[in-house]
Write a structure and sequence with these properties.
By secondary structure, this protein is mostly helical. The protein contains 20 helices and no strands. The chain is globular, with a radius of gyration of 20 Å.
Length: 399
């Protein structure tokens, strides 16, 4: 192996340029989510959509994750067009949200939102696949790149909460649209990556992903633990608003969780535990978080509990991405990300619909259901821990 002093200057510059452009795109992509996640349901409520319809409408993104999304990621991988697909879906998403802002009837909103989600939901798995290819190509760490998305989420959520003092709730959709347009423009700066060499073994490995218990354990565990955040994403802002919290307080509560997530992503290169163990710790943290949230704790306790987002979400993401890097060859990474997100979509869509009904009847009792989901996800990872620790890349190679 050549020493660092022998590496050409261009070889040193390329990783930095890749990292900067990817960090900026993660920032705009999750910055939009920082407005959408806390306040899209508030906008729906402000224009007169009831809780049951909110649950149905917000089920659209996870439904597209297991229907349209795998087709998009597979097509992008077959055509070696990860970057092009990211750019195209970015501009299509911006157009979609602009149209959503003009609609106010539940059925029409559901239809337009669902169509928009067909191009919006593939963006993150496409970006993660692009990121993991770059991580391997340039020898980088995923966490420090991904943290910029979390940082932008926090900033945009805070700004949106502050703007609620001056902007009517019915106009929140235009803030979401503006950030989406910015993200589409930033996507143009993403650096092209070299095409991976496709061999017969690699091509054959793609359909075998879903027949391998190792890979299935990864995606099922991720779906259950991350899916346990469903009620939080959909109804937390509404519940906090009903509790009398201001828009800024709601934004701060969201941001506390994201700050913990940022710290965890920044520290992740120093983690020495196996990725499977990290996921099990994350599952246990999620169980504790939702069990406490279900008790309607006072604001001070709720603020502390929100810091658990770093473990319940952030540590799950780091652990799952670590497992993907070590158990899935780069040549089928986009397809694997599509399957991962599709499995999450099946769980999340079901959770969104059921959560709407449970919340309407039991209120915060919906978090008890979330705790049970997280516990199940941790148990799946525990069952697969030995295989995941000792058999790298078995998921695509057949084990």
């Amino acid at each position: 192996m050549s020493s660092e002093s022998q590496i050409p200057i261009a070889a040193k510059v390329a990783p930095r340029r890749f990292a900067r452009s990817l960090a900026a795109f993660y920032a705009t992509t999750f910055g939009m989510t920082g407005v959408h996640l806390p306040f899209f349901t508030v906008w729906l409520k402000a224009i007169g959509i009831d809780a049951a319809w909110i649950g149905i409408i917000t089920a659209a993104p996870p439904v597209t994750r297991f229907t349209v999304l795998p087709l998009v990621t597979a097509a992008a991988e077959r055509r070696q067009m990860l970057r092009g697909a990211i750019i195209a879906t970015g501009f299509a998403t911006a157009l979609g949200f602009a149209v959503i802002g003009t609609q106010h009837q539940p059925l029409v909103l559901l239809a337009v939102y669902a169509l928009t989600c067909c191009v919006w939901t593939p963006m993150v798995p496409l970006t993660d696949a692009y990121a993991l290819r770059g991580v391997r190509q340039f020898g980088l760490s995923y966490g420090p790149l991904r943290l910029w998305g979390s940082a932008a989420f926090a900033v945009c959520a805070l700004i949106s909460g502050f703007l609620l003092r001056y902007v009517a709730e019915v106009d929140l959709i235009w803030i979401i649209t503006a950030v989406t347009v910015l993200g589409a423009l930033v996507g143009l700066t993403l650096r092209p990556l070299g095409r991976p060499v496709a061999t017969v073994a690699h091509v054959a490995g793609a359909p075998r992903l879903l027949r391998n218990p190792t890979f299935l354990a990864i995606i099922v565990s991720s779906a259950l633990i991350q899916g346990s955040h469903g009620a939080y994403y959909i109804f937390a802002s509404i519940a906090w608003q009903q509790a009398g919290f201001s828009g800024l307080t709601i934004a701060v509560l969201w941001v506390l969780g994201v700050i913990a997530e940022i710290v965890l992503f920044a520290a992740s290169p120093r983690f020495t535990l196996p990725s499977a163990v990290l996921v099990m710790i994350a599952a246990a943290s999620a169980v504790a978080r939702w069990a406490i949230t279900a008790q309607d704790p006072p604001l001070a306790v709720l603020a502390v509990v929100q810091l658990g987002h770093g473990l319940s979400f952030g540590l799950t993401q780091v652990g799952i991405m670590g497992l993907m890097v070590h158990h899935v060859p780069v040549h089928v990474m986009a397809r694997a990300q599509g399957y991962l997100t599709a499995c999450g979509g099946i769980v999340a869509s079901t959770t969104a619909i059921v959560s709407g009904m449970v919340y309407a009847r039991f209120g915060l009792g919906v978090y008890d259901m979330m705790a049970a989901m997280a516990a199940t996800g941790g148990f799946v990872m525990w069952l697969a821990r030995k295989r995941l620790t000792h058999h790298p890349q078995s998921a695509a190679s057949g084990g």
